[in-house]
Structure formats: structure tokens, C-alpha cells
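Write out this protein's structure.
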Amino acid sequence: MTSTDFVSLYGLRATEYVIAVSYLLLFALFWRALAPKAAPAPARARAQAPATWFALPDAVKLHPGHAWARVEDDGLVSIGLDDFGHKLIGDLDAAVLPVPGTRLEQGRPGFVLHADGRRIDVLSPVDGEVAAVNDAASADPNALHADPYGSGWLLRLKPNGALRRNMKQLLAGDAARLYMERAAEGLRARLNPELGALAADGGQPVHGFAREIEPLRWDALVREALLTDDLGADAEVPRA
């Protein structure tokens, strides 16, 4: 084979190589254009979403002591115990509510619940004067569990000039829901395995789960969660 033949053969194979590579590149680009594009993951899916153990409507704001507040269309503020509080305490003996005309202060005792012969104070989420009470709470306090933010309201307050400031101190939306979830997880971490599961099926907390965690001193655990553990058993009931 002459040098001229070698150069010609080399040039032919180089040309074939270039053609082959070009074909593969064009095929890859064509295939990529035809392949379905994966939808980008939503931003909320990438972020850690709060769990759904406890309900809280978007219009409701939450005090760290687990009382809720909602401004109604008539300007009054409805308040009650949140879903976490209901599931924490469980069955109630009675709900003792202040009479209309009573003045409440944010972060001070607002109403009293009784369960298994023990007293549980709940802090008021806002300042205001009691305008109405839920008579159904006195007749059948356990009926409140089914709809804590609807028919389960306890008081309606006529707010004073501090309402805007009060509402800024409360939690709302996902932040409030996450607060309830973390409170439950903190209690779960204290559970003695010998006392049984916090949730009957490993999911939703059982009704009255404070008694699963501390069967003998469950009321002390509840007062700690509701931020009323320093009030004592003889705390003053709000009066008109």
C-alpha cells in the first residue's frame, strides 16, 4: 500500500467516524425533544409540610396556651379550646364560663374546664368583655369536641382597642398547625412504653391522650401544655 493509499483510507475512515458521531448526536437531540418533560416539583412539596393530626381553619388564630380566636362579621371575637386541647384533655365533666360583662385579658385565665374531677384553666387569647357564652357548653360539654371551631365555641368577646396588638401575638396558618404538631411530638417523647401507645393505630392521637402519658398526673401535664401550670388549683375565676 502506498502512502497515498494510506492517507486516502485514513481520510475515509475519519469521515465515516465524523458522520457516525454526528448521527448519534442528532438522534440524541431528537429523542430528547420527543421525551415527555417531568413537571418541576412544587415549592411546597420540597418544603416540610406540617402534619395533619390537628385541625385549624385558616380564619382562626391560636394562642400558645391552645385557646383560639376568630373575628366574626359582627366585630365580636369568638374564642374556644383548640383541637389539640380537646384531644389532650378528653372527656369533660363541665365547662365554667365567665358571665357576660366579665373583662378578660390576653394571657390571663379566661375560662375553666373540669375533667375527671380535676380543674383545668385556659388562658384568654385576646382582651375584651364577654358579650355571650355558649349555653351548650354547660348543658353538654362533650358535644364541643366534635366541632371545636364551630358549634364548639365557648365565649364571644367585645374587643377593646388592643385587638390589633393582641392578634399580632397569635399564631396562624401553617405556623399554628406546626405548633400543635410539635407540642404533641414533645409529649409523645415522654411516653412510657409500658403505658401503651399515644395513638391507638400509630397515627392520630387518642382522645384524652394526656391520660395515656401520665395516668396519675395527667392534669399537671395538661396545665403545662396550656401554660397554666403556675396558676395553682385556687386560681381566681374571671368575674364581671
